[in-house]
């Protein structure tokens, strides 16, 4: 299980010319490892995440998700790939105001056709994993910012993705809650064996990540791994609550 970007180039119209957002970017993220992508605003971080999520098609290069190259896939095929293989944690949780925490997760499973009881059991398992089993019946306005972000993370894992993409998860949180959320993402990555990319401009919470890649002007610089241990195999069991 892995995510691989190979020689990705992405440009956008800019008047009569084109602006290069990503310039021959290559990145491989093995299953069970967390790579943080850092860089200033406008450097290409969000573009990289959008390409990895198959939401934007690059001008050149290949995106390979869990051994499957996405080049040439139809829109429907890409939608199915995202539904079954890719979990996305958006910067803002965007939870449905009228739904409880457990219902936020159950909706994802219903879209995928899972039985209600199976969906609820999986939802409760994940809420327990993020430390919110006792908040399952609360609606978004009854949760703190950090709790809403944890529901957001659990929701992204509901359909057992092999790739997890996380966009600025600490932007609306204070330092302590931001650090706790990144630690949670790292723990879930290792225990669920997802290939995880976390995009952020904030370097202060990255002690738990396996590797840090830097993006500047659309080019990626990838230092050596920050951790020596190899990623663990996927166990399939419920992660331990933080």
Automatic annotation (TrEMBL):
Domain ABC transporter: 3-242
Top-level taxon: Bacteria
Region of interest: Disordered: 221-242
Keyword Iron in record: no
Database matches in SMART domains: AAA (SM00382)
Matches recorded under PROSITE patterns: ABC_TRANSPORTER_1, ABC_TRANSPORTER_2
Lineage of the species this protein comes from: Bacteria, Bacillati, Actinomycetota, Actinomycetes, Kitasatosporales
Keywords: ATP-binding, Nucleotide-binding, Transport
Bias type Low complexity, positions: 230-242
One Gene Ontology molecular-function label: ATP binding
Any Pfam family matching the protein: ABC_tran
Name of the protein described by the UniProt record: ABC transporter ATP-binding protein
